[in-house]
Structures are given as C-alpha cells and as structure tokens.
Write a structure and sequence with these properties.
alpha+beta; about 475 residues; three-stranded antiparallel β-sheet; 10 strands
Length: about 475
C-alpha cells in the first residue's frame, strides 16, 4: 500500500507518553480530524506562544471594523483584503477531505462577511466578536473556515509553537519556513514536501461554541433577563418541524439590534472547555486505536497479491470481519458514548475505514479515504489495478434511503467503480427506512438492475451472557 495509517508520533518514532507531555494534538497523518480552534479557548490557555492570542484576534477584527467605519472605498477594499484568510498548509485539523490541509476564507466569502459586518455596524453593533458568531448564520462559514481564519491570523504564534515542539521532541526530519523576521524550523510532513504544524490540544473543540446556538444557550453564564431574551430568540429561530436555513436565521437576527446584541453578549459570556482527548466523548479521536484492537482480536486471511477479480472477495471479507467484531465480539460498545447514545456517523466511517485499512495493510490493495470525485466524498474506495469498489457507511440514525438511492450510485459512477457496498450500521431498535431499502435491493436484484450491495451490521446493545 502507498502509505500507512499512523499518528504523528508514530511517524517520528516518538513514544506516545513523550508526545502527550508536550500537550500538542496528535493527528492521524493524511486524514481529516474534526477538531477546530475555538476562539473563546484562546483566552484560557497558559501556553506561552498563545498568551494574549484572543486579544490579537479581536484587535485584528477591530481593525477591519475601523476600516469599514471610514466609509472610504479604498479602506473598504483593504477591509475585504484583511478578511481573505488563506488556508495554512500542514495543519492536521478540520475538514481536510482527501488531505489534512484546511479550508479557507476566499474572496467571495470575505465579500459576504464584509457585507454582513457593514449591516451590523449600521445597526450600531461593532463588537469584533461578530466575526466569531457569524458561523451561526452565514452560509459556507462553518467551524473549519473560522478555525482556519484564526490560524492564519495567529500564524506566527503557530510557527513559534511548532518550532518549540519540534525541538522538544528532537524531530530530525524538518522543514524551514522563512518569514520576514525569522526562519522557523518545524517538522516535515511525513507524506509530502511541506511542514507539519502543531496545534495545542487545549485550544481545540469538536465544534466551537461560535457555531452552535444550542451550546451558547446551555453553556453561557449570563443574567436571567439576557437568558430569557436569548431563549426567546432560540425558540423563534427553531420553531417548526424542520431546522431553519442559515439565511432564515440571519434574516431574523438582523431584524433588530436587540436580537443580534443578545446573541453576541450570550456568546461572550460562554466559558467552554477544551475537548477531552483522553475520554473522547464524541468518538472523533480514538477511532484508529479502536480499529487496531478490533483487527488484532479478529484476524482474517487475505491474499498478499490479489488479482483484480479477487477485489470483491477482499471487500466482503473485510466488511464481514467488521460485522463479526461489532455483532459477536462486543465492539458494538464502541459505537456509543457513556450515556449509551450513538456516536455520530463520522466516528463510524473513520472506525470502519481504519479497520479496512489495517486488514489490507499486508495485501496489495489500495484504500483511499473520502476521495473527492467531483460529486462529493466517498467514505472509502478499494482498488486493485483498474478495478475499483466504493464503500459507503451509514447509521440507521442517518440518511439511509438517500445513501442507497442516490449517494452511493453517484459516487460509484464518479469513481468509475465496478461495484459498491452500502454498509448500514443499525443503532436504532426500529428502522422502517432500512426495511424499505432492503426491499428495494431485493426488487432491483429480481429485475436484474445494478445496485449497491447492502450489508447490515447490527450495532445495537447486546446483553451479556449472564443477562441473556
């Protein structure tokens, strides 16, 4: 296979304990990690390189607001330029899709952020925190883009931190980044020509509070009057059976100064906690370690040099081994949090992908995670020679019908794959949609139509032998 599935410390041959002492995030190299820099956590960190980092961010956005307030066309153009925050290469967090690089705030998104800021300033709201809460209501401005923007603003601090961690870990494979003031010697990315930059765990969350109405409501410690106001806004925005679109939320919030002021004040009062990487409550971090254990406990035999015609057999054996681990070996437990609520679909996809990857390490079969073929992400793709198979993973708590009827078929065509497997992990007691999908598959099979092969993995809680 072209590469291994390893964390940063494994690539650099550093013990897990030595790496943990640094407090740096330990990404799986080459795979997206769904963690983001939370701007509110910047005020809490004791890491020397990030002292007063939140003030630097707020000062940066205050500068944008000052330019907007002049009403001068040239100043407005400069404000737009300052809001264009390009992605920083080599950061192992965010929605990287086919890589571990981030997203960006490009010219068009910066133009929309500028326009919204102008509207808020005209209403009398000029708090620099408005740029942090825009993720609540601005299209395409999610946690990844906010996080990438913060990293760009704080780039020198990130470089200083990365250089120090590189020295502390005595990493010999290095990459030099030259700025006007300093040459920063940082770790070289193990899989490409470029840097691997380190980020402290203490400023990361799985979703910044700035992007979550619900969490602002729960976490914020503000006065009762403000709480009532905020909850009334929340109730109005989320009334009805369907979650409102960001455009609807934006329209409502910007109708009066009081509404957006309440949201900003509530956000400012929040005191979030960094993500707990040890307990991994959302299942977003330790999926590789889980997969390693499942594979070691449940070995299978795969051909070392399979023919193209063997690829389906390899896929079926790998899926079957995962199914056996979950259904018969107790691995269903890893699909839930401590409250026995199903973890999100991203966890299931990463866990299954890592399992498949590790099984195929000794076999000459390539596995690519979430390959982007222009129509959207595939969970992963197996290939041998010219033959390709795509595998899509869904939980019964997710969009099962859409996955079977549309997504998997689109991905199969986009990847020019010969076949596809639609793996549904059952985490709900009943699933009428799954039953409907299985019936569709049966009918398509009878009619001789090509369709994804559905494999159901029963991930529901199993009673122990003593209780059964």
């Amino acid at each position: 296979m072209s590469q291994s599935l390893k964390r940063a410390n494994e690539y650099f041959r550093i013990s897990d304990s030595a790496y943990k002492k640094t407090g740096a995030f330990n990404p799986v190299i080459g795979v997206d990690s769904l963690f983001f820099v939370d701007p509110l956590l910047l005020s809490k960190t004791k890491i020397p390189e990030f002292k007063n980092a939140q003030k630097e961010v707020r000062d940066y956005f205050t500068g944008v607001i000052t330019l907007i307030k002049t009403g001068n066309a040239r100043a407005r153009a400069l404000a737009h330029k300052k809001l264009i925050l390009r992605e920083v290469k080599g950061i192992g967090i965010g929605y990287g899709s086919t890589s571990d690089d981030g997203s960006a705030i490009g010219p068009e998104l910066a133009r929309r952020l500028l326009s919204t800021a102008e509207e808020l300033i005209q209403m009398g709201i000029s708090d620099p925190a408005i740029f942090e809460v825009m993720g609540l209501f601005e299209e395409d401005f999610g946690p990844d883009r906010l996080s990438d923007g913060l990293i760009q603003i704080l780039l020198i601090r990130v470089l200083q931190y990365s250089e120090r961690i590189t020295k502390e870990l005595a990493i010999s494979s290095t990459h030099t980044i030259t700025t006007y003031e300093h040459n920063y010697v940082v770790a070289k990315h193990p899989l490409k020509d470029g840097p691997l930059l380190f980020i402290p765990e203490g400023i990361l969350r799985d979703l910044p509070i700035a992007n979550s109405f619900e969490e602002i409501s729960v976490v914020a410690s503000f006065n009762e009057d403000l709480r009532k106001k905020f909850n009334s806004i929340l109730a109005a925005c989320f009334a009805g059976d369907t979650r409102p679109k960001k455009a609807d939320i934006k329209r409502y919030l910007l109708e009066t100064k009081d509404r957006i002021r309440t949201v900003v004040d509530a956000y400012q009062a929040c005191t979030p906690l960094a993500y707990d990487f040890e307990k991994d409550p959302a299942g977003l971090h330790l999926w590789l370690e889980k997969a390693k254990q499942l594979v070691s406990e449940n070995p299978i035999s795969l051909p070392t040099s399979p023919k193209q015609s063997d690829l389906d057999e390899v896929a079926q054996k790998v899926i079957g081994a995962f199914k056996k681990g979950v259904e018969s070996k107790g691995w269903w437990k890893s699909l839930y949090n401590e409250a026995k609520e199903p973890l999100n679909e991203s966890h299931a996809r990463h866990f299954f992908y890592a399992t498949a990857f590790l099984y195929c390490e000794s076999s000459d079969v390539d596995i690519s995670p979430e390959s982007n073929a222009g129509q959207g992400p595939v969970d992963f793709k197996l290939s041998r020679g010219g033959k390709k198979i795509v595998v899509e993973v869904k939980l019964t708590s997710g969009h099962v019908r859409q996955g079977y009827e549309k997504q998997t078929r689109i991905y199969e065509a986009s990847e020019d794959a010969q076949s596809s497997y639609f793996v549904v992990v059952k985490v709900t007691e009943e699933s009428r949609i799954l039953e409907a999908v299985l019936k569709m598959e049966e009918e398509e099979e009878k009619e001789g139509k090509k369709h994804p092969t559905v494999i159901v993995v029963d991930g529901r809680e199993k009673l122990s032998a003593s209780k059964a």
